[in-house]
Amino acid sequence: MEWWVYDQLGQRVSMGCVRLTVADAKWLYYNCPVGTQVEFYSSSNPGPLGKPTTRKISNAPNYVKGWDPTDPDSKNPWPKYLEELENKKDDTSDKNENNTVDTGNTNTTNTVDEPTGSSNSEVNTSKN
User: Fold this and answer.
1) pLDDT for res 109
2) pTM score > 0.85 for this model?
3) DSSP secondary structure letters along 15-70
4) Which of 46, 54, 89, 123 is close enough to 101 for a disulfide, judged by CB 3.0 to 4.6 Å?
């Protein structure tokens, strides 16, 4: 998914496509059996769980923009990039506690643990 499309997660931008982060797609795949009824509704009230939020990646460096930050693939550069940002933030905090580094992480992203015994990092969206 292109970075600008990723930044549109959670917004109505098509005629019915449902776009998900890799983590959310994996959660659905492993927790909702085929035939699970899904209800979509349009309301300003997001319900008891609230509306999920995702990280916007448009300000990230080009080398990470081609990846979903929640993708557990070992080649995903996001974990290393975020670690580097945290290290810079810690270094800056140590030198001057009034100075902060904006990591661009104003939103949260839920992650999904790999199911026990599974080594597959890809999501197969069809169950045959």
Assistant:
1) 42
2) no
3) SS-----HHHHHHHHHHS-TT--------S---TT--------TTS-HHHHTS-TT
4) 89
